Amino acid sequence: MKKIYLDHAATTPVDPEVIKAMLPYFSSKFGNASSVYSFGQEARAAVDSARHKIARFLNCKSTEIVFTSGGSESDNLAIKGVIDASEIKKPHVITSAFEHHAVLDTIKELERDGRIQATYIKPNRDGVIKVADIERAIRKNTVLVSIMYVNNEIGTVQPIREIGKMIERANTRRIMNHELGIMNKTHNSELKLHNSEKNAGRIFFHTDAVQAAEYFDMNVDYLHVDLLTMTAHKIYGPKGIGLLYIRSGVPIKHQIVGGGQEYKKRAGTENVAGIVGMAKAIEIIQNPKSEYRNPKQKESNPKHEIRKLREKLINGLLKIPNSRLNGSREYRSPSNVNISFMNAEGESILLNLDMEGIAASTGSACTSGSLEPSHVLLSMGRTPEECHGSVRFTLGHETTEEEIDKVLEVLPLIIEKLRRMSPFK
Amino acid sequence: MDNLYSDKIMEHFRNPKNLGEIEDADGVGTVGNPNCGDVMKMYIKIKNDKIADIKFQTLGCGAAIASSSIATELVKGKSLDEALKLSSREIAEQMGKFPPAKYHCSVLAEEGIKKAIEDYRSKKK
Taking a contact as any Cβ pair under 8 Å apart, which residues of chain A between 61 and 120 contact chain B? Predict the structure, then answer.
């Protein structure tokens, strides 16, 4: 049976070109990039060149990139790093209620340990965060805002640039208030210390852009972000390699010690092959000629083609009675389809799809391990029943129209079968 | 998905036994709730204090559907007292390999059967 992979938001197959680029760095050019002899220097050159390429992609300096083991580590480093480096006693962090758990659980843990205060902004019913909601949540002790670029479950795109600009304005106001406070103090020595003198300095803005890299603008200056998380395995690169962009001047405390690598921000021997592979994967998604090239070496699959296939899949699935699209259709990743079917349970849908060779994902409690329904769908006001019946398809380079047709042929029958088995009519 | 569930569970998931509804059931038991994702409804037909027929309807995951199917097979033809002795552990053993977090599915199947029998007995009084 032909397998149909529609779970690209989970991970992607490694592009053959990426593997080719990585191969020499396992056995022939295997040196440690920190060694002075030629083996080491070959590795060092490869890491430097990869870092340079990626810096161009993000429009940043090479020294602002810290390679990590992937998205989760980058999110941990960004949040814990900023909090550990903060000089104020109990800093405040703003995030969204539907972040990836790598962000959400890190913040919740710091909050539980009494180290920070936290605000969790809920998205609207379409799964989009409002800039004004974040602005209203800012306090004197706010040091960090962390909002994801593209939601991993529902594919909705957040207004990162607008949030970034709003935070810059808030930072400007803080500096002006601070200076005003100092002036007042000099004019009247008895005047009480201006509150702003006790403020937290700048607010730093982090975005988890793991799901955005392929389809959206990753220019850190355009986005007005201070910290940005990226990983290779969502863009046809290898697993186990990612990065955190850290804008110059953003104080961050390392979380892994034991070596001077990555500008002393992340100890550990460089994953040379992984770094080379990540740079190659980025080069491929950047280059308009090779962009969206099919890893199976079939016909090319440009961005608008993926969007067209997505639209076909959404339109077809919404014809099933009692179905509903989760998340905005307009502000949405070209690859994401997430639909809830009432009175059909997600894991049972996935098992049936798997029997047809189709791989997808669900927000049902039954597959979460914790038996909790999707926090993403709940945060945007979906009922637990709607979460249990949700299915996510994420399309990729190698997705074909025939594959979409196959899903549209089998899924209505699966839903019908499961609904017949259900005690609800 | 082969690594998730035993062959037996997958077989019962693909071809559930005793699936459906008994319109003139002597006892009916519904357990679980849509909030938690799994709902089971058991229908029983009683003759000479024995379960002459049993059917189920389940909204839920693979383990929930398979445990309903396996549990109904285990009690069909049994006396009510014997059927009441069926434990979740026995159902789970019969199911074979499944993730530990799904143990509640076998509990639901046990409770569904008990509730249907209680319903029958309370009606008889």
Answer: none
Q: What residues make up the domain containing A228?
A: 16-286
Q: What is the DSSP string of B10-71?
A: HHHHHS-TTBS--TT-SEEEEEEETTTTEEEEEEEEEETTEEEEEEEEEES-HHHHHHHHHH
Q: In this structure, are A60 and A204 located in the same domain?
A: yes
A-B Cβ pairs (cutoff 8 Å, strict): 70
CB atoms within 10 A of CB A424: 12
Task: Give tens-digit pLDDT for A345-389.
Answer: 999 999 999 999 999 999 887 766 667 889 999 999 999 999 999
**Residue A187 and residue A57 share a domain:** yes
The beta strand positions in A26-173, using DSSP E, are 65-68, 92-96, 117-121, 142-146
Same domain flag for A179 and A133: yes
Q: Is residue A11 part of a domain?
A: no
**pLDDT tens digit string along A202-242?**
999 999 999 999 999 999 999 999 999 999 999 999 999 99
To the nearest 10 degrees (0 to 180), the angle between helices A401-421 and A303-317 is 20
Q: Is residue A150 part of a domain?
A: yes
Domains of chain B are 7-120 (3.90.1010.10)
Question: 3-class SS at A7?
Answer: strand
Nearest to A159 by CA among A131, A134, A120: A131
Let me know if residue A7 belongs to a domain. no
Q: Do B34 and A388 touch (CB under 8 A)?
A: yes
Which residues of A are the active-site residues?
A: 366
Shared domain check, A410 and A263: no
Q: Where are the beta strands (DSSP E) in A38-80?
A: 65-68
Shortest alpha-carbon distance between residue B91 and chain A (Å): 19
- Contact check, Cβ <8 Å, A348/B37: no
| ipTM exceeds 0.90, yes or no | yes
| Local confidence band at A119 (pLDDT 50, 70, 90 cut-offs) | very high
pTM over 0.90: yes
Q: Do B38 and A366 touch (CB under 8 A)?
A: yes
